[in-house]
């Protein structure tokens, strides 16, 4: 799979086959989030997700990178094409070495926020995506992997 981006009058071709490690982005400021979401939308489009799902999945990516910026301060987002025996899909990984979560179950509950958010980010990522894995330890950081399959 080749990811072809046409932006600011330039054409950029990125090799995105399943064997590739994925696209890795450093995120720490809001414009990093915008960039990640932009690329995610293009990837999802080329993977064949319809517009509605593109927006939904891109919003899940945005929630994860926003949480990195807000709570972890800085970290990385990895976007990747994945496949199994009968379908292809999209995987987003979010990692940071920030403060971590003292209680993961609480963090996944709707309306729980230690910041001044609505506490809807993580529950919506879980709802939108097909698979969701989270690892977080106080003082060690947070790692989240979420996948969405085409079928
Ligand atoms: N990367 C992270 N590192 C540390 N804590 C996190 C991280 N991501 C989420 N959390 C914790 O989980 C809580 C819930 O996250 P969630 O994204 O659901 O809500 P929110 O960011 O507070 O608000 P919203 O996303 O609705 O704006 C956060 O308030 C925070 O305490
Ligand atoms: Mg959030």
Automatic annotation (TrEMBL):
One of its GO terms (molecular function) is kinase activity. The keyword Ribonucleoprotein does not apply. It holds the Pfam family HATPase_c. Residues 52-151 form the Histidine kinase/HSP90-like ATPase domain. Signal peptide: none annotated. This is Serine/threonine-protein kinase RsbT. Keywords: Kinase, Transferase. The lineage of its organism: Bacteria, Pseudomonadati, Thermodesulfobacteriota, Desulfobacteria, Desulfobacterales.
């Amino acid at each position: 799979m080749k990811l072809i981006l046409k932006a600011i009058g330039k054409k950029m071709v990125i090799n995105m086959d399943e064997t590739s490690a994925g696209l890795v982005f450093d995120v720490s400021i809001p414009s990093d989030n915008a960039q990640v979401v932009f690329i995610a939308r293009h990837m999802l489009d080329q993977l064949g997700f319809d517009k509605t799902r593109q927006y939904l999945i891109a919003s899940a990516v945005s929630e994860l990178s926003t949480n990195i910026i807000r709570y972890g301060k800085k970290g990385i987002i990895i976007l990747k094409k994945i496949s199994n025996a009968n379908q292809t899909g999209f995987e987003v990984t979010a990692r940071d070495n920030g403060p971590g979560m003292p209680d993961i179950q609480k963090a996944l509950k709707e309306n729980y926020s230690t910041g001044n958010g609505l506490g809807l980010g993580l529950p919506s990522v879980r709802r939108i995506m097909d698979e969701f894995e989270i690892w977080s330890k106080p003082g060690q950081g947070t790692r989240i992997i979420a996948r969405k399959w085409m079928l």
